[in-house]
Design goal:
six-stranded antiparallel beta sheet; Jelly Rolls
């Protein structure tokens, strides 16, 4: 990774303020990627072996609903972290993801990040706090959508 790419990595909202030694370690575990629009990044049920920090573009998250196909459950863009399923066993994607426009971002090797976090508990704890915060934001967004959906269904009843 170039010095410029490492500087861009460190400016990501998700990693802002991370100690330099942790950022340098993470920089060795990722690569900057460009992904075309309408590209499926992963499928529900497949092995979750990576995650991304989105630099540009947009990605939709979807879930398979029997008899209805894929249902979009969220959208992520610049500054968001994509991929949380690599954090806990069985390390399988719990939803799918597709770029809706060209995406650029940092793609991390999840196994290597897990190993680095185990080797350096201080780094591991710092990363865990950041990912937990992302999970909480997603849960809050989901809750708001559910409440909105419920309110609309009550109005139509």
């Amino acid at each position: 990774m170039t010095t410029q790419e490492q500087a861009i990595l460190g400016a990501q909202p998700f990693l802002r303020g991370l100690p330099e030694e942790h950022l340098a370690k993470l920089a060795t575990l990722c690569r900057h990627v460009a992904v075309p629009g309408h590209h499926r990044l992963f499928e529900e049920g497949a092995t979750a072996d990576r995650f991304w920090l989105i630099d540009a573009g947009q990605v939709t998250l979807d879930a398979t609903v029997p008899g209805r196909g894929r249902l979009i459950i969220g959208a992520l863009g610049r500054g968001d972290v994509l991929g949380l399923s690599w954090l806990v066993p069985p390390y399988e994607w719990r939803y799918g993801a597709m770029t809706t426009q060209p995406m650029q971002g940092f793609e991390f090797d999840a196994r290597a990040v897990r190993a680095a976090c185990e080797d350096d508990p201080v780094m591991g704890y710092e990363m865990w706090k950041r990912f937990t915060s992302a999970v909480v934001r997603r849960l809050q967004t989901t809750r708001a959508r559910l409440l909105e959906s419920y309110a609309h269904s009550e109005m139509g009843a």
